Amino acid sequence: MPHPIMFDDADPFLVRVREIALALPDTTEVVAHGRPTFRCGKMFGNYGGGEKGGERHDQSLLFIPDTAEREALMADPRFFLPAYLGPYGWLGILLDDDTDWVEVSELLDASYRHVAPKRSIAKLDTP
């Protein structure tokens, strides 16, 4: 039995996340477990998620943070430890009308660099 779809293509936050993620070289979008995921070989972004045993955050972005920034991000109330992916180093950021989209772009870029093949990263770094 497939997972129910847990997103709306017209969601303006999803539209912005898609624009940012799909602008990265060789990125694809795949619906998995009812949510949009962004991949370059491996998954580097997931739209929507929740906290284990807690609140569901349909307008959020799950990503792999830089190790050096993880602790500082966790101290910010906009970030949360997502169910399932949290134990593997992932974090989530809540998206709202005050979202800093430059920051979201930087978080997705860092996450992408964790999983993308060297040839894809080279395309990103080419002027």
UniProtKB/TrEMBL annotation:
GO terms for molecular function: DNA binding. This is MmcQ/YjbR family DNA-binding protein. Keywords: DNA-binding. InterPro entries: YjbR-like_sf, YjbR/MT2646/Rv2570-like. The keyword DNA-binding applies.
